[in-house]
Amino acid sequence: MILLHLNLFPFSAPSPSSSSSSSLSNPSNAPRFRITKIPSFKPLLALPSTHHFSSEPGLNFRRKLLYLENDLGISPSFALTQNPNLRSFPLTSIVSITFFLHQHFGITHLHDAGRILSMHPILLTCTPESDLLPVACFLSNVVGISRLDDLRKAVVRCPRILVTDVDSQLKPTLYFLRRIGFIGAHEINTQTSLLLVSSVETTLIPKLDYFQSLGFSYKEAVKLVLRSPRLFTHSIENNFKPKVEFLVREMGRDVRDIEDFPQYFSFSLEKKIKPRHQALVEHGLNMTLSEMLKISDGEFNDRLRKMRFGFI
């Protein structure tokens, strides 16, 4: 695909006395353009391959579909199904949204912009100033994620944050997290900003309640999530309960072992926890949870051999 790229680097503008006609007759005085063959990751600061707009509605609609599919990598049929308003939304407005994502969130590649917009097609017809700018201001001024590259990381990691209301969701969750200890060394950053889209009442508090049901105090439960914030993203039914049951019943460990290694819940029960526990049982060996899970398969097998032959 060939795109026409604007040369955004400074160029010498014609002097005030120069006329527009002289600029056209003398190419050295005109803004410079360059034709570039696009690699797999396409710069966002480019006009779409459909940059010639027409007064014919049918032609513009086809060009809009081509822009979605070829430039952003979004299935037009999927986008139109998810967001019917897209049918009448002008291509120029869609392009302006991608530029807004670049300017305010540091999304510099169409690949990333397309991924975000395909996950939330409602954004394809949003009004950036009223829908996206409040999120950018909140992340930058309230949360403290102010560097453009950090904003990019936060949004790429959790695009849902762009479609989450600031006042009813993001602010209350931030204040709750700060209240329980996500400040200072634990302050919300690009790694943990995805927690902001979680409901305090239906997601965060129930996780703390679950750990208290295991015998941990409220303070101890909070300490667990501060050490491993990803705990707030796991399912109680599909993650916590089966792993706690395996830890206690099959492995014969104390539930308090979680206190030393809360990252236990981040590992796959079927692909890592069970196989490694079985390997230890077969050889009559024992490791702490962190020793058993944190290392790679090769390191685990090497450690297993050394333990078997008494080198450890």
Automatic annotation (TrEMBL):
GO terms for biological process: chloroplast organization; DNA-templated transcription termination. GO terms for molecular function: nucleic acid binding. Gene3D superfamilies: Transcription termination factor 3, mitochondrial. Belongs to the mTERF family. GO terms for cellular component: chloroplast. SMART domains: Mterf. This is Mitochondrial transcription termination factor family. InterPro entries: MTERF (IPR003690), MTERF_sf (IPR038538). It comes from Zostera marina. The keyword Transcription regulation applies. Keywords: Transcription, Transcription regulation, Transcription termination, Transit peptide.
